[in-house]
Structure formats: structure tokens, C-alpha cells
Backbone:
């Protein structure tokens, strides 16, 4: 049996799966936590990766590995390969003004036509502009810029600061892939190349950028001889892990919420609602993201003093539409719509509607309506949605499944719980090792009957 490994270095934790390269069956796996916050020392990711590898039994018998990671995070390195400051993560909104400044200078339509994306606070370019404006001394020291999965891939291959690595700070050995590069706002999914004018406009000067690898391309070797694949952004990794094809729309409910599909043509949405990302297979990944997803349920479950299961039971005891109670769940600001300074609002409170069951249902409906709005935006870019694959821990809640079938107007499918980003990275590793993209089966655990209730979204849109 040939073994390959895939890593998901996410916002909250690092997961690794070791799989059979032929079947995709998980042989063993490991996990380690990441620190909380929107600003994190990359060394914490490296430590977590080492712990997760050890928890998974090591890599001595693993032929190839690839790293999927949270998109957009800004890792800035000096000439010695040292991290200059803690990385700003995708969910750090301090660069919202920087995004507005870049759009004002260039124009949203220009960004969309040349890159496929329009800057928002999440993207790397806006964080570089923030660094230039807020910390000019640090910005002046930047010799290279990487994303989280780029930096981890580089470190896995033995590169890094002299006193922390075997091969030293060879910045030219940084690599990335097209899916993650497309979330920087200085690499173009339209042309397949860096647009260095946009990079310099953000940071203020040029710097080394990772070489962009193609699907199935090898990044290099670990010092123990294990092959390293190209890696991917988390959503592109999940699409690979799910085997998403034309007609499939993936809805992921995690720390953030995402809606994305694999398509043959890039999206170029000048409104910035849909990001025209590349995928990890050589195609494209039009995507919307919300800052608020599973944490909505965490918040309301905590407020009501119940578990997530109890929250679901309460929600199902209320009628669709929650008697007019509507939660607009922008607890952490919002990316889609682009309202970084927004807060959550509860509408329709009357003596009759303000009950525990209605509040529980309003939380789940609010979460899903935000994602349904995202589906509409993705469809407006030409995506034909035939079924929706819902993944993430919240997708296993029966109330989320049932209410999703009432919010979405196409069939909903719930895949078996799994580490799909890590599995997608493992598929990449197998691809890089064999030269062929694997075709691993997908297991389905639930297919709730279509039960579309227009009132839910009509109420949500009214606010």
C-alpha cells in the first residue's frame, strides 16, 4: 500500500490525514490546535504541524504530502527568511480602509477584469497596504511575501532561517499554487500570472513572490525524501476532497461560511461579491465567503444555555419563518455583503415572536439565508446549481439539514463528516506522486427532501 498525506492548516487547528493513495481510505490521522485570534505567529502553525504529524504516527512510511491552508493570511519575511511580524489572518478586518483605498486608486472594474477579484479586507494585498501605512518600518524590511500554506510547504522542504532549518533562507524556493495565489489580489486567475503593478501598489516596493505551481506539480522533497505536492487554499482543497464537479455547489459551514463551485471560466464580478478564484485542478472556483457561520449557532446556543443539539430541537419546534423573527447575523462584521463594521441585528420582535424556539430557528435561518444569498450571487456568474453539498460540523445537525432544505431551492446533500481539505491535499499528494488525479469515492449521509419555503428568504431580504 502506497501512503500519501494531506494537511489542513486551518484557522483553528492543524489536521493531517494519511491515506491509501489508490482508494483514499484514511489509514490514520492527527490533529493539533492553533491559537485563537486574527493575528498569529506562523511559528505556532509550524509547531502544530509537527505535533499533528507526530499524532498521526509520523511520515516515515509516507511517499508524498501536500498542505492545504487558510487563504489570504499575510506572512512577510526579511532577507534572512525570518517572519517580520505576526501574520494577519483572513478574518482580520483592520485592512478594510486599505481595501477601499486600493479600489479608489485603481477601480473595481479594473481589478475584476485583470485579476478576477476586487479587494476586500480579507485579501493579502489589502493587508500589505495596511502594513505599508501602519507599520512602514516593517514594510520596508519585507523581502518576500507568502501565504500560510506556502510558508509551511517551504518549511517542510527544509528551508527557513539559518538557525531553524537545514537548508537556510532560500526565498526563491517559496512555492504556492494557483488556487491560493488567486486570493491575494495581485495574481490573476484570468491570465495565470502575477500582476506586479498591483503588488507594488499594495506594499510600496517589489519583493520575492512564490513560484506558482500547476495542478499535480511537485514542489520538491522533504529532507527525508518525501515528495511535497503544490498545496492549495482551503476551499480549493475541499473541492478536490469532495470531488466537486459541474452542477455541484459546495456550502461550507465552519468558522467562516463559503459557497463555491467548480467552473470552466473565471468569474469577473466588479461588485466584488463573488471572488473569481482559481481552483486546484486547473479550472476556476467562483466563491463568496461570510465571516459569520458556525459561530452564530455558538452565540445563540450560549445565550439560550443549550447545546447545539438542543438548539436544533428548539428550532424545529418553531414554524418556518420563526413567526417573523429574523436574525441578521453580522456578529463579526461581514465580508459578503462587504460590511466590515456591521453588527448583528434581531428584527421582528413582538411579544408573540420572541420565544426560545423562534430565536433558535432565526439563528439557523439567518445563517443559511446569508449563504443562500451567496448562492444567488454565484449563480449570477453563470453557475448552474444542480445540487448543494453542505459540509462542516454544523451540517451534521438535523435541524440545519432540514432547514437548509427549506431555504435552498435545489436538492441538498450532506456528505459523510470528514476532513475534506486535508483529503483534498492528500489527493494532490497522490496526483503529484503518480501524475494522475485520483478518483476517490464520496460517501453521503443524508439527503433531506426538498421542502422550499419562500417565506424564510422573503423575510430575510426585507431587512
Residues:
Amino acid at each position: 500500500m502506497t501512503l500519501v498525506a494531506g494537511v489542513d492548516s486551518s484557522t483553528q487547528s492543524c489536521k493531517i490525514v494519511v491515506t491509501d493513495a489508490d482508494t483514499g481510505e484514511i489509514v490514520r490521522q492527527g490533529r493539533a490546535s492553533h491559537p485563537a485570534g486574527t493575528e498569529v505567529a506562523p511559528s505556532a502553525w509550524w509547531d502544530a504541524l509537527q505535533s499533528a504529524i507526530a499524532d498521526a504516527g509520523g511520515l516515515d512510511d509516507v511517499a508524498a504530502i501536500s498542505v492545504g491552508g487558510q487563504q489570504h493570511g499575510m506572512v512577510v519575511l526579511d532577507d534572512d527568511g525570518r517572519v517580520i511580524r505576526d501574520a494577519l489572518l483572513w478574518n482580520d478586518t483592520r485592512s478594510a480602509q486599505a481595501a477601499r483605498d486600493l479600489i479608489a486608486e485603481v477601480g473595481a472594474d479594473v481589478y475584476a477584469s485583470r485579476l478576477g477579484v476586487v479587494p476586500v479586507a480579507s485579501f493579502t494585498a489589502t493587508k500589505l497596504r495596511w502594513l505599508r501605512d501602519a507599520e512602514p518600518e516593517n514594510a520596508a524590511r519585507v523581502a518576500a511575501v507568502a501565504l500560510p500554506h506556502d510558508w509551511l510547504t517551504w518549511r517542510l522542504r527544509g528551508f527557513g532561517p539559518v538557525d531553524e532549518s537545514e537548508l537556510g533562507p532560500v526565498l526563491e524556493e517559496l512555492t504556492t499554487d494557483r488556487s491560493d495565489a488567486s486570493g491575494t489580489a495581485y495574481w490573476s486567475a484570468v491570465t495565470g500570472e502575477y500582476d506586479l503593478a498591483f503588488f507594488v501598489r499594495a506594499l510600496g516596493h517589489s519583493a520575492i513572490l512564490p513560484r506558482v505551481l500547476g495542478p499535480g506539480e511537485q514542489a520538491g522533497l522533504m529532507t527525508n525524501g518525501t515528495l511535497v505536492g503544490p498545496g492549495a487554499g482551503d476551499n480549493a482543497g475541499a473541492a478536490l476532497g469532495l470531488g466537486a464537479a459541474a452542477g455541484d455547489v459546495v456550502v461550507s459551514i465552519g468558522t467562516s461560511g463559503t459557497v463555491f463551485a467548480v467552473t470552466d471560466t473565471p468569474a469577473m464580478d466588479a461588485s466584488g461579491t463573488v471572488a473569481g478564484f482559481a481552483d486546484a485542478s486547473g479550472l476556476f472556483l467562483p466563491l463568496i465567503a461570510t465571516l459569520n457561520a458556525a459561530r452564530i449557532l455558538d452565540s445563540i446556543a450560549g445565550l439560550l444555555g443549550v447545546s447545539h443539539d438542543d438548539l436544533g430541537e428548539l428550532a424545529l419546534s418553531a414554524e418556518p419563518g420563526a413567526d417573523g423573527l429574523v436574525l441578521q447575523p453580522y456578529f463579526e462584521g461581514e465580508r459578503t455583503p462587504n460590511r466590515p463594521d456591521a453588527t448583528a441585528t434581531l428584527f421582528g420582535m413582538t411579544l408573540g415572536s420572541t420565544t426560545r424556539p423562534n430565536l433558535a430557528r432565526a439563528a439557523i435561518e439567518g445563517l443559511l439565508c446569508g449563504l443562500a444569498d451567496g448562492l444567488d450571487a454565484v449563480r449570477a456568474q453563470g453557475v448552474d446549481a444542480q445540487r448543494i453539498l453542505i459540509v462542516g460540523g454544523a451540517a451534521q445537525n438535523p435541524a440545519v439539514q432540514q432547514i437548509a432544505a427549506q431555504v435552498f431551492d435545489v436538492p441538498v446533500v450532506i456528505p459523510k463528516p470528514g476532513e475534506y481539505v486535508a483529503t483534498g491535499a492528500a489527493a494532490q499528494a497522490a496526483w503529484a506522486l503518480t501524475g494522475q488525479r485520483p478518483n476517490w469515492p464520496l460517501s453521503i449521509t443524508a439527503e433531506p427532501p426538498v421542502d422550499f419555503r419562500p417565506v424564510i428568504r422573503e423575510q430575510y431580504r426585507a431587512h
Remarks:
- Residues 356-379 form the longest helix (24 residues).
